[in-house]
Amino acid sequence: MATLTQAPEQLPVAPRERRERRWLWAVVEWLRDHWLSIAIAGALLWVIGIPLLSAISYSFRTGSPADPGGFTLQNYKDAYANPLTGQTLVNTFIVAVAVSAIALTIATFFAWLVERTDVPGRSFAWVVMLLPLAMPGMLSAMGWILLLSKKIGVVNIAIRGVLGVFGVHMTTGPFDIYSRYGIILVEATRSSTALFLMMVAAFRLMDPALEEAAAMSGAGTGRTLRSVTLKLMAPAIIAAGMYSLVGNMEDLEVPLMIGVPAGVFLLPTLIWFTGNASNWGLSSAYTTIFLLITIAMVVIYYRSVLRRAGNFAVITGKAYRPRRMSLGRWRWPAFGLFLAFFILSIVLPIGVLVWASLLPVYEVPSSDALHHLTLSNYTALPHIAGIAHTVWNTISLAAETATATMILAFLVAWLVIRQRVRGGITLDALAFVPHAIPSVAVAVALIAFYLNPALRWSHVYGTVTIMVLALITRFMTFASRTANSAMAQLGKELEEVSYVSGVGRLRTLTRITFRLLSPAFIAGWIWVAANSIRNLTVPLMLSTSDNGTIATNLYFAWQRRADFSGASALGVALVAFLALLAIAGRRVIASGYSDAK
């Protein structure tokens, strides 16, 4: 038994102290083994979780991010008491449902034509369906305003001219783009591309045996489509529809340019105006309502589709090549539908923008206006005040967003699929959550978070960095799904050989795994970069005098300075650049779809 005269170092360690030391050493060992996983999870939580919690917190505050004030429920009382809120919710749902239904119908029908029928010109059809990627929503709205404005719309003027021959004289109309129907038209024509890619993939995976059995039983093409194909495709159609519905609810560009002049407000525009009025509490309250709605829709999707996915299993492991259905005399009319969609979604809006860009001051097309055509708007582009800084901001925004988003998505996929870390499912779910977060909600959350006095030292607000953080959140869902799919298809042999040879996990990841997955990474990088350039919602919400982008320049030139010709020239130049990115992306994407080559 030890006595008090023994030296301290000779005294036995108490059992409790030994346990504490073992526990501390175990924690150190665990941190050393899992530091990379902790860092990745921390980055994901920082990008997605903290700003949103900040926005929810400010919805219960009386003040601003700089001076939050006390807690209150008044913001929610003001939101629900405002008669505009109810009408805005109705408008939002009507527009989102109508756009999703139209776009999904177009995408599903065109995907069926490309994958299951002998429609001619399938390569052209692929180009037609991918080209809208190069057309930002703001430019589509600008083009359709010049086409269907009540007084100066080119289509309206042409229709009035034809009606005048028959004695029907009109001074305006007959169509008016500034309406709820105008929003639906513009959104539906530009929302089909992503859904088309989703439906093509679903048709590719579906076993055609039941379709072939129906054909052998004497069922015609139309009946087979209705009774067999569409029923088997129900999960994919519902999934694509829910994806589209959530995405369409959060769009700001088209409702801001077409809806607001007509007095048609949607939730994103309501958040935009309350935020611009520095009513942060009310804006955050609307943001929280928006979040609850979109998250509820994701839960409905999970319950209605994912839980019942096994009931619709029609994917076979056998190699097969589906027999294409013969359209007979409808082959060329079907091809004509692709041509009509191409004219409606691309030729008309971009054509009128090109026309406007070639005029010193916008005029409706006429023989007299031909004498005024000039390239002066294009030659003036390099001389626009601050354009070099704006272009640099845009390039930096696209490059930084695409790189950071894809790296984080692939690291999360590596943890979840390759390392199978504990809690990996939670990380994967967290990476999917941003699809239920509207861009305007993300922007409001980041403003509230980084304007907090405790974080002013970061100097993030008012820089390109805050836009990058917002867009990472916006595109994380797409990037994570792309990364998961690529990682799941990669064999483990080379990685296992690397581990056996004594190479560490991080070096194996960078030297082997990443290199093998570089095609998928590049394809995702191009998609994120292109969408970062064409995105207006985030830059418009977060722009200052120092971090403006080409998208914000376009909006201010069109909306505030009414410089239709100058804005059109800048827009056409932007479309040309995005088209090059889309073509580059198509070469990578096409590798997964043989008919696109």
Structural domains: how many: 2
Q: What percent of residues are in strands? A: under 5%
Total number of helical segments?
26
CATH class of the largest domain: Mainly Alpha
CATH architecture of the largest domain: Orthogonal Bundle
Question: Based on DSSP secondary structure assignment, what is the total number of beta strands?
Answer: 0
The gyration radius over C-alpha positions equals 28 Å
Helical coverage, percent range: 55-70%
State the CATH topology of the largest domain: MetI-like fold
Name given to the CATH homologous superfamily of the largest domain: MetI-like
Q: What are the salient characteristics of this protein?
A:
597 residues, mainly alpha, MetI-like fold, 69% helix, disordered C terminus
How is this structure best described in words?
By secondary structure, the chain is mainly α. The protein has two domains: 38-72 and 377-562, MetI-like fold (Orthogonal Bundle); 76-374, MetI-like (MetI-like fold), CATH 1.10.3720. Helix content is 69%, strand content 0%. It contains 26 helices and no strands. It has helices spanning 15-58, 74-81, 83-116, 122-130, 137-148, 154-165, 180-190, 192-205, 209-216, 221-232, 234-249, 253-259, 267-276, 280-304, 331-357, 376-379, 387-419, 424-432, 439-450, 464-488, 493-500, 505-516, 518-534, 537-542, 550-560, 564-589. Helix 1 (15-58) crosses helix 17 (387-419), helix 3 runs parallel beside helix 7 and helix 19 crosses helix 20. It is globular and about 105 Å long. Residues 1-8, 309-319 and 592-597 have low confidence and may be disordered.
